[in-house]
Amino acid sequence: MDNHRTDILFPSSSKQTEKAEDEVAIVAQQVSSIVDRLPSQKLEAAYVPQVVSLGPLHFGKPQLAKYEIFKDELPDILVDRAGRPPFKNLVADMILQASKIRQWYELLHMHICNDSDEELGWILARDGLFLLRFLRKIFTRESDCDQATRFFFLQNQLPSAVEEDIMKLENQTSMFAAVQEDIMKLQNQIPMFALQMILQWQAGTDLDLNSILRHIWHTLSPFLCKREKLDSYVLTGPSLRPDSHLLGFVYENIIRSSDSTYHREHNRMGKKKRYITLPSAVELRRKGVKFAAHVEHLNEIRFDGKTCTFHLPTIEMDERTDGVMRNLVALEALVCKKERKPLMCYVDVMDRLINTAADVEVLRNGGIIHNGLPTDEQVVSVWNGMRKAMGKGHEYEPIESAIDGVTTYYTNYEYIMICSEVKDKYFPWACLAASTLVGCIVLLLSILQTILSWEQLRLQRQSMQK
Length: 466
Known about the structure:
The strands form two sheets. A three-stranded mixed β-sheet has the order 1-3-2. Strands 4-5 form a two-stranded parallel ribbon. It is mainly alpha-helical. The protein is built from 23 helices and five strands. Helix 12 (about 210-220) packs antiparallel against helix 13, helix 12 crosses helix 14 (about 245-255) and helix 19 crosses helix 20 (about 375-390). About 65% of the residues lie in helices and about 5% in strands. The protein has helices spanning about 5-10, 20-35, 40-45, 70-80, 85-95, 100-105, 115-140, 145-155, 160-170, 175-180, 190-205, 210-220, 225-235, 245-255, 260-270, 280-285, 320-335, 340-355, 355-365, 375-390, 395-410, 415-425, 430-465; strands spanning about 290, 300-305, 310, 315, 370.
């Protein structure tokens, strides 16, 4: 992320100016306009937590009560571990950070009810422990991590009886996927500086939260990554900002390869804003375009004119993809400059490519989509619904360049085919003849150079004999 976006997404306490507040108000209105265009049921399912609340925004809602009993049990269970300070010490530390926590939520245009500092600190401490417990569940599915992180998770497993009760809840009602979606809701975030404090209290050491999240962020992302690339992400991925949050960290990893300097120069060129026009996947396939998933970042999307291949990242379509993508897009509307919104531009492209179930099948065959939904028609509905919520006219130069290549090939397809047919029919040996001619010329020049060298040597010998 560039400095402009991070200053808005992660406001610093040292920048409490009227200008910053005005910027937040403006971008918050942009997010509100996205939300207002959604049907009410989609709004509730996509942006509001459905099974578990994190932080004070949705605390105490009756429909989110299923996990509250386990949240209440976690502090007592963990305090029993030898050498760990009392839970009230952690709450006291949170209370000292209450003003910073309130400012963090307010600058993100998220109004906190008139809770006392004591209640706010207790909510953050308890919900943070629950989030770390859930991240451990995700972590146990991963095989590689540093020794300190693995030791922490192994030492902080819950007693089998408690864990069994939670697993029964998750297994019987498919809660695990629902919680995994809820922790990625924009309105359901906890400041990372608070989560880091909770982690240090629980671990008893200065264990870095960044080292944990780098191992599991791809599990929360809808985009699939190759295993060999994940190892490099653990070492070179973006560092976690203490005033960030989980959704923001995943977003940064998704777009982390963007070249902000290049795009600032590109924007200054004054290119006119345009809407994306792109044929569907079926129409492109009829004109010989192939699809391949050989890229993993949005800035790597490209069209290879030589092989007629459209390269796009692979995305996993399951029950939580719609909600996660909508919240990532809403976050991007909040933090990105108007001129470039990579994720919105990508969603726009996918919507143009997908009009029917046949288009989804084409993209599945190309490895662009892994469909975990019951039908391809549901995939169509997801993409079409997301673009309608965003509006039109989003720009991102690497994707625009790929679109220009695809549309140019599609528009000139007949001309390209005619030229290819004429060349194959009337000049089948043209390339071979040209290559042979060039080879003969090079050979003759080499022979001529050798003859001249011999003649020059003969003349030198004659002059020496005289």
